[in-house]
Amino acid sequence: MDFDEYIRIAESILGHVISKEQRDIVQHADGPLWIIAGPGSGKSEVLVLRTLKLIFVDSVNPKSIIITTFTEKAAKNLFNRILNYYVEMLSTQPEYANVDIYGLRIGTLHSLCNDIMLDYKCPEYENYRLLDDIEQTLYIYEHSNFVKSTNNLYLPLCIRLDYLFDQFDPITGSRGWSNHERLPNRWRRCKGAVSLFNRIVEDNIDLDLLSAANDPWNILLNAYNEYVESLEENRRCDFAHLQEKFLNFLNSPLGTLFLQGDRSDAHPGIRHLMVDEYQDTNPIQEAIYFKIAEIDHNICVVGDDDQALYRFRGGTVECMVNFDRKCEQQYGLHFDYDRWQKFLSKNYRSHEGIVTYYNQYITSFELMRMEGARVNGKPLLRAESSIIGDYPSVAFITGQTIEDTANKFASFVRDLLNNDIIQNPNQCALLMKSVKESPRNAFHFAEALRNIGIVPYNPRSRTFLDQIEITSALGAFISIVDPGMDALQSVRGDEINKKVHEWVGSCETLLQENQNLRNYVNSSIESIRNKPRDTWIDVSILDIFYRILSHEPYITWKDDPERSYRLGKLSSLFEAYSSIPLPHVPGSNRGFLKTSSEIDGKISLSWRIQFYYSLMGLLVSAGINDPENETEISPIDRLPIMTVHQAKGLEFDFVFVYGLNQDVKQESTISLENDLAQFRRNPSISRFNGLQKSEQDLIRFYFVAYSRAKYALIHLVPKNHFKNGKLGFIDKNTREFKNIVRKLEA
User: Fold this and answer.
1) Distance from C-alpha of 356 to C-alpha of 378, rounded to nearest angstrom
2) What is the Cα–Cα distance from 582 to 56, expressed in whole angstroms?
3) Looking at residues 344-352, what average pLDDT do you find?
4) Measuring CA to CA, how many Å separate 33 from each of 160, 317, 327, 340, 649?
5) Segment 447-469 mean pLDDT
6) pLDDT > 70? residue 136
7) CA-based Rg of the chain, rounded to a whole angstrom?
8) What is the pLDDT of residue 173?
């Protein structure tokens, strides 16, 4: 099949003509490909068409193509689209039926690293347990000497990096770390350790440079090395070290076989790599990608520097902005901009007024016009949507207070429904920085919606621990393993004590209405009471937890999707805690219970105290989100309240944005990035200081929010938020904002 024939078939499937800028990308042959794709420009469609072009026109073995995405959901959606197009093409091109489309490697980089190393039986990764974020946090809490230490060995490091311990701590109910003569509390150090250990890997830090530095960097290196040694001893691997192991694999003989192949169908080698959402790539991922494409230089990156959001996960927009320089540095190429750089600048999503507005917004800041802030030569977006109409596509609603503004917002949504402008609440979305249902964030907006009969959908409201199915299940478990909460008396932490008493009280209320559950709890307490001291109990904590859920009302609650999701997440948390090995005892885990060596009929006091500090401390300190159904954005009859990060990649008919009053302050993630920059294997070439990076990140944050809207973008601005110098307004100028944006009387 030649290219022209392929395009004719593709256009007949799509039902529209492929634009010239899209066609140029699809037709690209070999060599690097740098695609800067603005919001709503059809980048997913281009990735699908380019993948199938490689297979149908260029006869590339699907096993020789790797496509990485930012989320598993995006990977699944992308593969389904490729599969659907492939099936459609087979109806007119049956000779391609022997193509194994399932041979494509599509997924997040983490999932691909895991799968490829398992496929190739990488000795450095076989029989390892991969820790998710929760398990890693619990593991570090239990195994890191930096976290467990009670002496001041690590105090100089904490003082040097004090910004890591300056956040609000739910366990103590305080903000900051006031007494620098003592270590921060254990949970604060745990969160700091997670950030430090991950960033050492993600920023591709040279440990030799770190070793050659003076204290406190030597202290950090020792803490990090102890953590890595512990992981290896217990055959555990976190997501950051998964990438490091994969990079080492690529440089091994097995990795050479994977990359170069041996001309067999099992090992055809890798010929093409495509990376989606490249603007959120971190330095070690960049190193992996350039290693994968080392042979043919067929690395295609797709993204938008204006939509970089994930610096807190190690992502650095530098990778996207300086892709051309990296190609020249890594491969010794003279970058051919005419052939290798492509812009997708037609927006097929939004009303022209919205596109004009966020073009004005992103270019109104001098900081975004400076060299290195954005990709050079980037054109403005052009509106190509079929959405038209002479109405205020960009507007604002204001009230005297947050509560007043929220009520006007809810009334406006009700009017949209009553006038059949929208048919369902989920055609709208409310976007904000934090969706916690507190008075300064989502509370008033959620209440205003409820008051007019619209139920908000807000799985990240941090109300997981307030739900009856969660509180009662935790209370039942605690009642069994620590009847009377004896061990809790030894636990320092007012918030842990408060929550545990609430959970046990919730359980006692439930037991009065459910005789079978009460019988199980009482019989379990009695069974443990009859055990002699220093004896292993024949049930694990998972057994106890699952038996609690096998009684009413949990059986009925499992039929409720939301309650079922929550109980499933709580089960996962118990499983994660159960899997944590005891320090210096490889092969052990926290899931097995033993009676006290000193008292008959009691679970080990040290186990109970550690359980409160560790798992219960995690629940209290982390503010667990509700689990989210990845198959749907929001139930059709509910209005989603989302963070901008949640909304990334999505679109809604009406988008409401709250919180246009952000001050610029240097984020701790940027402070850590700057502090570690001196030790990177590939030094940063950014010319911006920490405050400038923070401001750029906030500007991009609002750009992502504004570009989600299709028909209308509506700002929600209480009167006291109209202050010059705040982010969210064009050029941080509220007068300019009011000149451009129309006020709605709701």
Assistant:
1) 15
2) 54
3) 97
4) 42, 17, 10, 5, 22
5) 89
6) yes
7) 28
8) 66
In the prediction, which pLDDT does 437 show?
A: 87
Instruction: Confirm whether 3-122+246-344 and 362-460+630-743 share one CATH topology.
Output: yes
- Assigned token pair, 248: 């080492």
> Among all chains, which residue has been given the structure tokens 């701590």?
169
Residue 261 has pLDDT above 60, yes or no: yes
- Please tell me the distance from the alpha carbon of residue 335 to that of residue 325, in angstroms, as a whole number: 8
C-alpha distances out from residue 103 to 83, 106, 441, 702, Å: 11, 9, 46, 39
Helical axes 3-14 vs 43-56, angle rounded to 10°: 140
Question: Which of 628, 638, 640, 642 is CA-nearest to residue 562?
Answer: 628
Question: Distances from the Cα of 89 to the Cαs of 49, 77, 93, in angstroms?
Answer: 12, 18, 6
d(CA 422, CA 418): 8
Instruction: Tell me whether the omega of the peptide bond preceding residue 216 falls within 30 degrees of 0, making it cis.
Output: yes
DSSP state of 314: T
* Lowest mean pLDDT segment, chosen from 213-217, 535-539, 684-688: 684-688
Which pLDDT score, from 0 to 100, does residue 482 have? 96
Question: Using one digit for the tens of pLDDT, what is the confidence trace for 313-322?
Answer: 889 999 999 9
Question: Which of 11-15, 146-150, 629-633 is least confident?
Answer: 629-633
Report the pLDDT value the prediction gives residue 494, as an integer from 0 to 100: 83
pLDDT of 151: 86
For residue 630, what pLDDT is reported? 59
Burial (Cβ within 10 Å: 0-12, 13-18, ≥19) of residue 254: middle
Q: Is the pTM of the predicted complex or chain greater than 0.70? A: yes
Round to the nearest angstrom and report the end-to-end CA distance of the chain.
Answer: 58
What span, in angstroms and rounded, lies between the C-alpha atoms of 475 and 164?
33
Q: What is the dihedral of CA 576, 619, 611, 589, to 10 degrees?
A: 10
| Whether 719 contacts 400, CB under 8 Å | yes
Hunting for tokens 């440990």 — which residue is that?
207
Q: Please calculate the CA angle 403-407-408 and round it to the nearest 5 degrees.
A: 120
Assigned CATH class of 362-460+630-743? alpha beta
Q: 638: part of which helix (H) or strand (E)?
A: strand 638-643
Find the length of the chain.
Answer: 746
On the 0-12 / 13-18 / 19+ scale of CB atoms within 10 A, 608 is: buried
What's the burial of 264, exposed, middle or buried (CB within 10 Å: 0-12/13-18/19+)?
exposed
State the DSSP string of 82-140: HHHHHHHHHTT-GGGTT--GGG-EEEEHHHHHHHHHHHTT-TTTTTPEEP-HHHHHHHH
| Beta carbons of 445 and 456 less than 8 angstroms apart | yes
Element (H, E) at 15: none
Domains of the chain by residue range: 3-122+246-344, 129-234, 362-460+630-743, 464-622
Tokens 């892709």 correspond to 323
Q: Over 90: is that where the pLDDT of 548 sits?
A: yes
460 pLDDT tier (thresholds 50, 70, 90)? confident
Q: What is the mean pLDDT of residues 10-34?
A: 94
For residue 661, what is the DSSP state? Answer: -
What does the pLDDT read at residue 177?
85
> Which CATH architecture describes the domain 3-122+246-344?
3-Layer(aba) Sandwich (3.40)
- What are the backbone dihedrals phi and psi of residue 300, each rounded to the nearest 5 degrees, phi first? -115, 115
Nearest C-alpha neighbor of 604 from the set 482, 467, 692, 717 = 482
Q: Which of 693, 671, 666 is nearest to 192 (CA)?
A: 671
d(CA 13, CA 344): 21
Nearest-angstrom CA–CA distance, 218 and 212 = 8
Q: Tokens 């689990």 identify what position?
A: 627
pLDDT band, residue 485 (cuts 50/70/90): very high
User: Whole-number mean pLDDT of the chain?
Assistant: 93
